[in-house]
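Example record

Each entry pairs one chain with its bound ligand, cytidine-5'-monophosphate.
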Amino acid sequence: MKQEVRERLIFALDVDEFSVAEKWVQQLHENVGLFKVGKQLFTRCGPAVIEMIQRHGSDVFLDLKYHDIPNTVAKAAVEACKLGVKIFNVHALGGAEMMRKTVAEVDAYCAATKAPKPQMLAVTILTSSTAETLREVGIDRPVEEMVVRLAKLTQAAGFDGVVASPKEAALIRAACGDGFAIVTPGVRPSFASLDDQKRVATPAEAIAAGATALVIGRPISAATDPLEAAGKILLEIEDALVS
Ligand code: C5P
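Structure tokens for the complex follow.
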């Protein structure tokens, strides 16, 4: 499978043991371009898990969703660069100054060290949030309006893209134009169960709506043949890209 297609499939490494994570990386790296390391696995295993993934020739999406004062997020982002991750993310709700400072420090670090610049993404509104969740924290606006507003803020701050539901991808693509990355979880191929995901799309639907990469966990990990499941998803992504 072409590298260009493989890099659009990100496997959610939602496990808590180093050995289990390594088993998945060994099993899937042929068909999966990036492995997403989130708060659970990183808190348990730390940078060692990132080095392990890189040793196997794969790349890392460090999904720690930084949200703090601008200086703290910018410094954490530089540490993510030192780890050599391909993607990291923040919460757009941290604001424009937080994102601009992060871009400035990452740019300066990468220019000084000649390190490759990671793709910088922001989460707009978590897909677990509803209008009610927003109202509870004093935001009396529809979710879609906030998603588009935060995607535009992210773009204006110099970030590369957002993490968003496939159901929001078309709105974001229309608002932010081509060249803005939209990474979508909540993707379910027709052969997989919904699990606890509610607002799902197939890989083809997500790509057609403007997604540039897909985060997929259980449809691969719960399959009888996980490598084959990942291969089927790659074919679906490839078809959607040409059509
Ligand atoms: O197993 P599944 O394909 O549902 O995994 C999706 C991954 O994407 C999980 O790591 C989940 O935490 C993450 N995610 C999500 N919805 C979001 C953001 C992240 O499902 N809005």
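The pocket of cytidine-5'-monophosphate is lined by residues 12, 14, 38, 126-127, 163, 185-186, 195, 197, 215-219 (CB under 6 Å).
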